[in-house]
Input
Amino acid sequence: MDLFDLSGKVALVTGSTKGIGEAIVRRMAEHGAKVVVSSRKADACEKVAAEINQARGALVAAPIAANINYKEQLQMLVAKTREAWGKIDILVCNAALNPYYGPQMEIPDDVFDKVMAANIRSNHWLSQLVLPEMVERKDGAIIIVSSIGGLRGSPVIGAYCISKAADMQLARNIAVEYGPHNIRANCIAPGLVRTDFARALWENPDTYKATTSRAPLRRIGEPDEIAGAAIFLASRAGSFTTGQTLVCDGGVTIS
Output
């Protein structure tokens, strides 16, 4: 049996119309899963889902727009996923934001709250919504896309780093509480990846060189390289891995 086969599984992936989330939803569909493409913009969801369905030659992707900041929209997202595919086997919490760049002690209260709500609370809410059915089936995988920012201090994106460290603890808590039900929860902690989210750090050649000069692999990552980690954690290949943070950063944190 293919350890990475996701046939018969349903994956709900937030923030999946671009960057890492898009790579994850496309690759999970390639590995046999039925998927939900979700972000705030309905037209973007429909575009990516249509491309996946065309590539697979079958209806395997459903577009469902939702704003992760509103619990009622997440409830709708989960309900519509079940309407489309009947269940949720894999939850990938990828959507996140970082609206502030500067000293942590100067971040406005409302911006701090916004970061925590989007990057932690929404993942907590989604987990609450999908865990009961996973418990009933005695099977499920929750994957949170965190960041190496959750492992390091920062003088300019402190609140974001706090939120990403909290995501790692959220995964550990779920792993401990729901492991007896055969449910696994893990984080992926990417380093710098070639996405629009991090464009300012790789688009300029001088900035790119400075950013990668101390990385053992001397380059940044590609979205598919993070998608590969998600496939591992969602599939039988990762069936004995839970409560972990899988760092995918080209070696930056060890150099």
Q: What stands out?
A: The longest strand covers residues 183-190. The radius of gyration is 17 Å. Residues 10 and 88 are 5 Å apart (CA to CA).
